[in-house]
Write the structure tokens for this entry.
Amino acid sequence: MRGRRWLFVLYVWGVVGTGAWLLVRTAKSLNQDLVVGLFFLLLLWLAAESLGVPVPGGRLTATWALALASFFAGGLPAVLWLGGLATLLGHRLTCGESWRTTLFNAGQVILSFFLAFQVFRWAGGAERPLLSLHHFPAVFLFTLAYFTFNHLLVGFYCRWGRRSLSGSWREVLYWDALSYLFTLPVGYVMAVLWSRISFWLVPLVFLSILAFQVLLRWCLACQQQYREFVLLRRLTEGLKEKRSAEEACAYALELLQPVLPFRTGAVWVRWQEHGPFVWVAGVGPLCSLAQPIKFRPGEGFLGEAVALGEPVATSDAQNDPRLRQEEDFFRAERVALGFPLQAGGEAVGVLFLGGRDLFLLSPQAFSLLSLVADRLALTLAQFVWWQRWYRTARSDSMLEEVLNRRFFLEYLREECRRAAEGNEPAALLLIDVDSLRSLNCHYGPLVGDAILRELGRLIRQVVGSGSVVARYGGDCFAVWLRGAAEKVAWETAEKIRQEVEKRHFAVEGSFSPLRLRVSGAVAVFPADGGDLNTLLHKAEKALAEAKARGGNQVVAATGIRGVKFFYRWE
């Protein structure tokens, strides 16, 4: 790993040093009469860079026409100095890159021009190219060679330095090839005007090309705004039809993909008010890495966005210190963006986008994402608040993760129907505290409530997350075991009884830990009852039998005989 790092450093500074050496070597050969003209071409180059047309692979500019014009006018020294200085100043001022990247870009441009010139000479070109048709093949090879060497040097830099391009290689090569192809004739025209009429016609021609570049930029911006308008309209209409948060988030990401250049997208939602954010939907090849990720406000990259209440972003995810302790999912892309989804003053979710295009960090992208985030947050808030209300309504007001009697009986009716259709066994357990009334009289009702809360948590731990626990009565709990027959059901009830018996209940309001005993009952579906009413009646009779025997024991309904009446539940 360290050897690769040193190889990358040697490569970068080798290219930079070679470029500086070529400039020094050709400085004396530079025609002093061209200095003023090259200065104006430098200004035009910087203007073209700043007004570049954004495309998925980078930006379209007409700078190759300026490079060819300087090449025809002053040969290799002129194009080396113009290309090197323009790249150094342009990338630093318009792109905001680091000094190392800026110096490397300038060095690789100079080196690419030098290598392309060797190909030009090999193809029969003169020391200073002539404006004649029989030299056009050599000039075309000069353009092709520069295109090749330029992308090879940048490719090695990205590969060894683990950097990402602004788009895929196919997109970068495609758009660069188009820009070289269409600006090659323009460079010829400007060179003819410079050599045979006047240099001042060169800026005039290029200004018309620059105006066309600005017009193209404006047209693409209008097209982008129209696509954003269509996206927001479709998003607003489509979210109304979604029946779950998963569908809503997947739909929003699907609509965003054609508009914003991201490769990976995911949404996390906070279902519980004080719970973690969990993954609900995603697009891209890395979604499997995002699904197990959970976080809370202030934890990690996305947790920072929630805590701040504003987006967080990075243009170098692989080297950003904030992401060093994060999962590989967040460092897989060059650009990482976390956008909080806020509704009613609360962050109900977080939107993450990752890609290679720096356009994700542009003001246009942030403006669009803020509108999308507002609409998506309102939709998610409806699902989140509804689920929270439903969880509160169906849960016992005093016990966490425990259903109340009404919702449990509704759930039990549906479970009996499902088990009957699938011909599957199931079991109902009733767990009742033997001496809770005396504890309430001695310690007070607050201690009794604390004991019930602790007992509910204990039962949940024993039966696991695959079972349903409810508060059936004042001090009685009910457990539904899906797929459990007589033996498993009785062993589970007995394990609950044993765990309660050996547990010391340290609750607020008592000076010493309290000991409890419980009685248990087991009724199996369909052996003890083929319908809900019969099953409940058998379980209650078994629990009464356990109490009559002195408590602290489990009684199975199959052991009860002489049932004289039928219990009807409404």
In short: The first helix runs from residue 2 to 26.
